[in-house]
Amino acid sequence: MKIYLDDERDTPNGWFRAYWPDEVIELLKTGTVTEISLDHDLGDDDRGTGYDVILWIEEAVALRGFQPPKIKIHSANSSAREKMEAGVRSIRRLADDRGKAKDI
Question: Can you tell me the mean pLDDT for 41-63?
Answer without folding.
Answer: 96
